[in-house]
Amino acid sequence: MWAADGWRDYRLLDCSGGEKLERWGAYTLVRPDPQAIWQTPRKNPAWRTPNARYTRSSTGGGQWDKGMLPERWTISYKSLTFNIKPMNFKHTGLFPEQAANWDFADHLIRKAGRPISVLNLFAYTGGATVACAAAGASVCHVDAAKGMVSWARENARSSGLEDAPIRWIIDDCGKFVEREIRRGRKYDAVIMDPPSYGRGPSGEIWKLEENLWPFVELVSGVLSDDPLFFIINSYTTGLAPSVLTYILESLVTPRFGGHTVSDELGLPVEDTGLVLPCGATGRWVKEGKA
Length: 290
Hints:
This protein is α/β, with parallel strands linked by helices and 290 residues long. The protein has helices at 99-111, 127-134, 146-158, 173-183, 208-219, 241-251, 253-256; strands spanning 2-3, 10-16, 19-24, 27-32, 52-56, 62-65, 73-77, 80-84, 117-121, 138-143, 166-170, 189-192, 197-199, 205-207, 229-234, 259-268, 275-285. Helix 1 (99-111) runs parallel beside helix 2.
């Protein structure tokens, strides 16, 4: 497992009974987590006095009990600063376990010794975008949600990257990639965080298990002649990390060489010393260690 253990402003204090107790900067949150099915004792007193708790409804969805929680605040990861805003469906606008991938991409970009262009698809609020830009890459950030792209731009400004070479694209990722292929535009690295389920702009249904293979096949068409890395993230329950290895080894390695390693991402739990699993990641690299 790749654990995101470089945080100072974020801490996973404990997890039990389908919930996790987190410290986001100055504020403590309790949120649902489907992986935390164990019923370990909740000894941390912060369980009883969080600043906010998200409770699921029996009819679907849920709601925040925010108390005195502000609408937004910032936390930092190394040189990066992110705007945190608790929103519907329990999210805060950041997946802290992805810091393990930010560090991975940062290392490869800095040691490449050449200009690197990165395509970040389903890019959300731009964690990977600002990490790659801070490492010196040019980045194309693509997400279909206008609000998420605006949020990502806020994160870039907060991280001192407002003048970094980042293209901000509001578009359907598949249609954008098709146009990039027609234009002959190439990228040295790809990061994608596709949803488990969603609907396209014309109502078409996206299911990761059905659409990931043809989508990766499509996206491989924008890789440069000397690509650096290709990262796929997946939060789909039941999709093994080795599936991502199989896809990348079948579609990318035969053309470019290199190799793939896939594993779970995780967050260290302070109260137990264990690591909470937070989805799977596949990493293809041309050279070196994936």
